Structure formats: structure tokens, C-alpha cells
Amino acid sequence: MPVKKDLDKLERTLDLKMKKQVQTGLAELYETLGCGATAKEIKAGRKVTANAEYGIRICVHPKTEPRVNPETLEFFPQTKKNMELEEKFVDRVNIVLESGGFKRMSPSLLPNLRKKDREFENRIKKLRSKK
Questions:
Q1: pLDDT band for position 108 (50/70/90)?
Q2: Which long-range contacts (CB under 8 A, 24 or more apart) does 62-65 make?
């Protein structure tokens, strides 16, 4: 029995080390993307999955989202390559989260972002039609 307790304790210690390693890695990733506050929250271990989703919403998506020329209101949709990169980023972060024992991000994260992009496109089209 004492050996079983020691093995359980060792497993818990390894799990904690793995969690900390995942948190540190994700924090470095979001720090590199320019999301320092999100990185600090992840490194501290506060709502890691929720903060990873927030980082994608705030730091990753704005770099790949559709663009608008404010002078002419010309709309440039998100490119297929940017969509693929965004999906790949989310998949990789999910793999890292699972390896650390955290929950996966919501599967509706990217569809919700794309829905908001379509609404934005429609608003721009209405503005253009008014001119």
C-alpha cells in the first residue's frame, strides 16, 4: 500500500508540473502576440481555457479578420489562408490545453467570430448603399 500512495503522489506532482509547463508555454505565446494581460492571467492559472479563447478573440482574430477602407468603404473579406491559419492556431492551442489537463476551447468560437464578420460586412454594404 505505501508504494501505491507514493505512485499516486508522484503522478499528481507530474500532472502539476505538466499543467505549469502548459501555462507557461501559452503565456509566452500570448505575450509574443502582444496580449500581455491575457498572458499574465494564463500564467497565474486563472481560467486558462477562457483566457485562451479571449486571447484568440482579442489578439489573433483582429490580425486575420476582414478589412475595410474607411474612405471608400471598400470591404476586403478574410482570405482563405487567414481562415486556415486561424483554424490551425485554435487546433494547436486545443491540443496544448488538453495535454495540460485543461478543457478544450468552445467549438463555436470561430463560427461566432465569422458570424460577427458577416454582420460587419452587411453593415458596411448598407453604409455604401446610402452614399
A1: very high
A2: 65/113, 65/117
Domain count, the chain: 1
101: which 3 cell numbers?
A: 489537463
* CA angle in degrees (0–180, nearest 5) for 119-121-125: 115
Structural domain for 62, as ranges: 2-130
Residue 76: what are its φ and ψ, rounded to 5°? -115, 105
All 3 cell numbers of residue 90?
A: 485554435
Tell if the pTM clears 0.90, that is, is over it: no
The amino acid that residue 59 corresponds to is C
Looking at the DSSP bridge assignments, the partners of residue 76 are 67
What is the rounded distance in angstroms from the CA atom of residue 25 to the CA atom of residue 116?
Answer: 30
